Amino acid sequence: MSKELPSKFHGLRWQRHSKDLSTSYTSLNQQDPTQNKKYVVEEPRDRFFLVHFLFLLFGLLHLMPLTFLITANNYWMHKFRNVSMEHQDVEYRSPLQRYFTAGTAVAEAVPTIVCTLLATAYGHKFLVRSRIFVTLSVIAACYVLCTIFVKINVNSWQTGFYALTMATLATIQTMLAVYQVTSLVLLAKFPGNYMKFFLFGEGVAGIFTSSLQVVCLAIGGEPETSALIYFCTGTFLLILTLVIFKVVKYLDIYDYYVTLNKEDTKRKTHSFTEAMKVAREIWPCLVIFMTYVATLAATHPSVTSLVISENAGKGYTWNDKYFVPVITFLFSDVCSLCGRLCATGFLTKRNGPFFVTLSFIRSAVLIPLVALCHATPRSHLPVIFNHDWQYIIILACLVFTNGFIQNVSFLSIGKLAPGKEEDALLVLIAFAAVATGLSSPLGITIVKIL
Q1: From residue 218, how far is each of 204, 221, 318, 335 by CA, in Å?
Q2: DSSP H helical ranges for 87-191
Q3: Is the separation of the CB atoms in 440 and 105 below 8 Å?
Q4: CA nearest 430: which of 130, 172, 208, 114?
Q5: Cα distances (Å, whole numbers) of residue 140 to 136, 145, 183, 410, 449
Q6: Which run of H or E residues covers position 12?
Q7: DSSP letter string over 191-210?
Q8: pLDDT at 156
Q9: Residue 323: helix, strand or coil by DSSP?
Q10: For position 397, what pLDDT does the model report?
Q11: Mean pLDDT by 10 residues, the chain (450 residues)
């Protein structure tokens, strides 16, 4: 692959081991100036696919810090159980158990909105590398804190531990919001094939954590032991990403793209009018993505994590131990990845209205269907879909279309806003943050309606 230089660099060639653009190229003095030739710079090789692997890790970490914590569902249910009950009943959940998953969405809402908007508007004033190192380091520190509390008995101060957990999640989400914006800014400097690795990493994140949960259950042990494995693995992945990010700085291919797209920390912040102009160009992506966010907030995992098997409590290992982690988390993540892999950037201004309408119809159908599954406890709505196979079909439709819509929104940006990919990605992330914050109460609302 080759990359065309700006006109003032025509007649130059790539040369490594330099600190700035002005010394990164050497003039070809032997070239005949009378010949009107245009020179291009050949892309250096990505040795050992290290940069590709880095963006895969970036995609993995886009969701992993939260999915690791949410997927450790048995651990949180154990920490917030009713300690006065000698035997725990799957049909009964304490208030802290019942509202934990939905509460996490609320705890993450404000940091998501505020930090994403600030990072989108003013993030360019700080170097990309600095932002990524700081955010991932803070998230790693939070994981270390969670790991420490795994073996601490909190039965006497469950409410305080609940508040501490929410504060930790809010801190992680604050750093994650900045990291998500920053990683996309860096990704926009690279060709489209790197975006595919990034999106694939996002899809693998859920499968990785859910598979880890199933393995922990299969080998036995207490919920604390499983949580210890999750949090230690998460800390390792965060540190590994930081190390690889440090190494790729010295690779030709990284220098090649980052140098040709030099950061300007003193440029003016985009005005609201400029952002709205970009938003109008990619409006189908924005609307479809926001319906995806709202549907996810109202259903998965706030409601789906409460769904139990029709044979739960009857002494069957599959129904009591494996149903939720395998079906609600692992199976759903596999379906979501399949949806992501099937997605292409097919949205255009012409077909946009049709697919926007289709996305609204999808949400209007799937949210009630999920609410009518066997989620417990419930006091108002009846259980219409009591059988496991019914729930599995509904869940598959929900998460497959979720993954499909998410990737379609990202992959269609190049067609709707050619030449403005970086700005369009930032606008999409900003709108997604607002949608996430505004829709966060939907999970608790649906749980109360049950």
Answers
A1: 21, 9, 11, 22
A2: 95-98, 100-122, 128-150, 158-187
A3: yes
A4: 114
A5: 6, 9, 17, 27, 37
A6: strand 12-14
A7: -HHHHHHHHHHHHHHHHHHH
A8: 86
A9: helix
A10: 96
A11: 45 43 38 48 76 92 82 82 69 78 76 80 80 93 92 88 90 89 85 84 84 81 82 93 91 79 60 84 93 92 90 85 89 92 88 93 95 88 93 96 92 85 83 82 87
User: Which two structure tokens, joined as six digits, stand for 134?
Assistant: 């700081």
Q: Which two tokens stand for residue 397?
A: 């439709």
Provide the residue type at 385 as one letter.
F
Residue 319 in tokens:
């129904």
Cα separation of 339 and 335, whole Å? 6
Using alpha carbons only, give the angle 205, 207, 213 rounded to the nearest 5 degrees: 105
CA–CA separation, 151 and 195 (whole Å): 39
The token duo for 311 is 């044979």
Residue pair 17/232 in contact by the 8 Å Cβ criterion: no
Encoding tokens for residue 61? 């970490």
- Whole-number Å distance between alpha carbons of 200 and 57: 10
